[in-house]
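Quick entry between incubations.
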Amino acid sequence: MTKSNGIVLDVDGLRMRYGSLDVLHDVTFQARHGEVLALLGPNGAGKTTTIEILEGFRVRSQGRVSVLGADPAHGDEQWRARLGIVLQSWRDHGKWRVREFLAHLGTYYAPYAVPGISRPWDPDELIERVGLTEHAGKKLKTLSGGQRRRLDVAIGLVGRPEVLFLDEPTTGFDPQARSDFHALVRDLADARETTVLLTTHDLDEAEKLADRILVLNGGRIVADGTAAELARRIVGEDEVRWVRDGRRYVERTPDSTTFARELFARYGDDVRELEVHRASLEQTYLALVREAEEVAR
Amino acid sequence: MNATVLRAGWSRGLIELRQSFTNGAELFSHFLWPALMVATLFFIRDLPVGALLLGAVALPGILGMNAATGVIGMSQQLTADREDGTLLRAKATPHGMPAYLIGKVITVSGGLLADLAIFLVPAVLLVEGLRIGPQSWPGLAWVLALGLVATLPIGAVLGSMFTTARAQGLVQLPFLAVIGISGIFYPITVLPEWLQWIAQIFPIYWMGLGMRSALLPDAAVVVEIGESWRHLETAGVLGAWALLGLLMAPVVLRRMARGESGSTVAARRERALQRTG
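Done. Structure below.
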């Protein structure tokens, strides 16, 4: 068993190469027990590749990876029983019914119950938890996209995992389902001390859910910290706009207050329509991605 | 732990078996093939084959042939399950793969046995000249059991070699060709000798022969090769296929499963959509 506040995910110098193409360069990060970590990045950044390596579905080219103390490339069934996996899109077992399938999958986890973690999760309780009670008797192929996604999350949870991998979990959710899902993940992290690694390209989601955000771009981690830390890190990205002599100017600056004072000192009344936009996390994220792309070129 | 895997596989198999007999499309296909075979028997039943009637000679052959379609059923299901991510789900579950395979064997062989019964009951009433009694059952049972062990693992191997249902469809053509030369609907001895040799490589001929030996009177042996039921050779060829399948299946399946991940399933789906869209 992992001790509380122990390191559950440990990735060091991870590289992935297909032929001569590197899709991950030197990815390094850690997650502690009970932490919710968001892997944030644009499409093609390497998020899914990273998570598939951690799930043990893909063999890395180089680097050290440890999940719950084991190398995913050689994880045994006991190790697998402690993981929950939600992939980007599932459409398997279309003829099975919701409750029937969850109850069946649960039986695989029963032998892995340990003191403190009763496995599996009761199917009816789990179905209620993800809001599918009225669809419990439906065949999987008749579920709507959002319902199917909620079932996928329930399947990921049925074994009461110690580590939960969520690849783009809320794709296709309406706002209500999204907010319910966020509450579920927070509950998990708070109450059960499940470590969660989720990928998303939705910054808002990362900010709401994650204790820590890793920004992945072009196969590199370009930032790692809490939402507040990331926003602070790029204080330089306040945006100042103004008009002078009929021309529009835009300037990015680390210190917008000083910049504005100097602007007025120099041009006085010529400066019009002044706007100052403080760095938001969204701008921070876009700036990070842009910065990383420039470095890559 | 093994008890859990067996139980999980068993319950998977029964659940999927029940599903295949409670939905319209599959129920239809469970009755279609037996119905076609009964209709065929009806039209050929009175044609003479030496001192026998063709109906009696063909009925056991059809049983053997139907049992051999497990190759197709198994490979079809495996390819489909790989395409829609069912196999990946098994891979993500502790001991999911062995339970999946046990379940699949139960589903496919259970479905086959049901199909055989659906065919046999009306067919027996239609055909004259069979010798069915308590002495038939042991012969029927061992040929059927060994035949399934000879064909299902090979089906699993074929199923894991194809990544799409469309490519898997190619298996069916050679299968039909082998049926054509396996002496199912007429004695194999009317074929040229070289074709007889090819037919004897595959399980279908031997499963048909075994069924005939169980269900026909001893006098019917005169239309067989060497005028013998050749039980030893039957067990030998079917046993060899069983051995080959059981040796190959774990290796091929493991290699196939290793390559499965969320993105490979998604990429295949993408390609399939592009072709049909």
